[in-house]
Amino acid sequence: MSTLCQPHVLFPQHKITQQQMIEHLESLHSDHPRMALAKRMILNTEVNERHLVLPIDELAIHTGFTHRSIVYERAAREMSSAAARQALDNAGLKPEDVRMVIVTSCTGFMMPSLTAHLINDLGLPNSTVQLPIAQLGCVAGAAAINRAHDFATLKDDNHVLIVSLEFSSLCYQPDDTKLHSFISAALFGDAVSACVLRADDEAKGFRIKATDSFFLPNSEHFIKYDVKDTGFHFTLDKAVMNSIKDVAPVIERLNQAGYQQNCAENDFFIFHTGGRKILDELVRHLDLPSERVSLSRTSLSEAGNIASVVVFDVLRRQFDSSPKPGSKGLLAAFGPGFTAEMALGEWAA
Amino acid sequence: MSTLCQPHVLFPQHKITQQQMIEHLESLHSDHPRMALAKRMILNTEVNERHLVLPIDELAIHTGFTHRSIVYERAAREMSSAAARQALDNAGLKPEDVRMVIVTSCTGFMMPSLTAHLINDLGLPNSTVQLPIAQLGCVAGAAAINRAHDFATLKDDNHVLIVSLEFSSLCYQPDDTKLHSFISAALFGDAVSACVLRADDEAKGFRIKATDSFFLPNSEHFIKYDVKDTGFHFTLDKAVMNSIKDVAPVIERLNQAGYQQNCAENDFFIFHTGGRKILDELVRHLDLPSERVSLSRTSLSEAGNIASVVVFDVLRRQFDSSPKPGSKGLLAAFGPGFTAEMALGEWAA
Description:
Two copies of one chain form a homodimer.
Chain A: E1 2-4, E2 8-10, E3 14-17, H1 18-28, H2 35-44, E4 49-52, H3 56-59, H4 64-91, E5 98-104, H5 114-122, E6 129-133, H6 140-154, E7 159-167, H7 179-187, E8 190-198, E9 205-215, E10 223-228, E11 231-236, H8 244-259, E12 268-271, H9 276-285, H10 294-303, H11 310-320, E13 328-335, E14 339-348
Parallel strand pairs in A: 5-6, 5-7, 12-13
Antiparallel strand pairs in A: 1-8, 1-9, 2-8, 3-4, 7-8, 9-14, 10-11, 13-14
Helix pairs in contact in A: 1-2, 2-7, 4-5, 8-9, 10-11
């Protein structure tokens, strides 16, 4: 077994309300024939505010992939170390206790990966296993948790540090004028998290009992990047909304196998917030009252979809809600592939 | 335990000899003050020939990251499936037997990763775990082997398909005129490999006994990318040559712990071919006669440094050399970080 300890989540300093974002898009594309529809759809996302690594007027001028990569790297180095130090402290561990470091981020690219920076900056052991994950998008946080759990199962001092960081704003493409680009530009937010998975269970948190992975065939076009001179261009096919009906039975099967009960009988949920509609589909197909995923809804409202960081932001909110020891929960996230990663866990206090 | 089965290695159709590459660089940069020195250093690499996904005259015109990403994706989809089918056949497994698919590639970027393509195209199970590794450069092949071994240790049907592909030529930057850029342009080659790690040991090959990871502090600048509008720009600090003296004692310690003997007493070596000097440093610090790494030297001469594919190309040559059952070997690769990944194994026949 292994336990996900209390994560530490950081947000960059610049904030933008959804109203400000709508005004920004309206002013930038004042003659766009579908702006009224875009505005309605953006209001429908139920994102109220997001954090950005640069103010929106700077982001509206595309300074190129070269410049944005420099901004990405500087912010990544600063914020990842700060989050990681606090996460180690939350877990009651020291840098020398870490055996593997995983970094997830799909909104910029560095080689060496930030795993190298973290070993140097925190003073992790020279034998630390590095696992950078760049290509799993929004599901990468849950994938990191499940791979960390695998590694922790091998040895009871195989503690893992997971750092997730997304500066989605550096993938904002002001010249992309398709409807789905406007929605993405108003949906994704920036954030950094760090979380320790303790292999010895000597901590409070989400104690993992079982994990599962799911891939939906022939759905590569649902969520994808076009890689261009101007960086990563996100594209989303609305067919992605149909994926949850296929994932829900897999989630129920994992839940039945681990707890011998339906999801509806679980105590808590740590769900990725792909968007409001994804959460609506989840509660519908898992037969849950809507308020059971309120932690995810609050995260979406306060931070936007922060990609691989979401599950850690929701986990942080779960810590704050003082759950009962032994309560039964489920963690799940979704991303490109189409891919889902799921974990069953009980609350250890 | 787990066994690396016979890999399948494919090369793209275009070939270039080192003499042709020198002529190309001389013609492109006829007034460069250090071209004579560059020529001597390129001859010193002992690369005779390389394979390229596009002919050199096309590569000399930088068509932009947008266009190169399209070329990368098409070649990656075609060649990865072909290599993977043969690798499964070599391992005596069917697509439905695969539990994890790892793809390593640092010379292009796709999201969804090629792992999604392989699940779709080969018909791997919907529960297949995906692990795309983009940021470990030349060490990614050995890192994939070691993470596959970890996963296989959990369950004896946890078979892993590892696909490595590098189209380094699509990172050729004809406008980069520093000396190290000329050397890189003449050193790195294109190739694709696929290899199955069987968790149940029911196959011939490299049976893994133990693995280790090593990180050299404060060496992020040794091997790195600058990420620009024109794609990935490789930079190499010559200080990287000093890294092997620090890695060698770690390799010897792993060897002593597993075999109770020095590396010099081993029967075979599957070494990454960072370059001629890296191989020279390895034999010097491990006290080996130079011809003990002849498989790596031949790979370098015939294909150039094919990054994360190298260890699989050398493993393929090891299969062809009909090693004695029970002979003792060591696999090691090096890459950005500076990072080394190592595995001890015996030959199973």
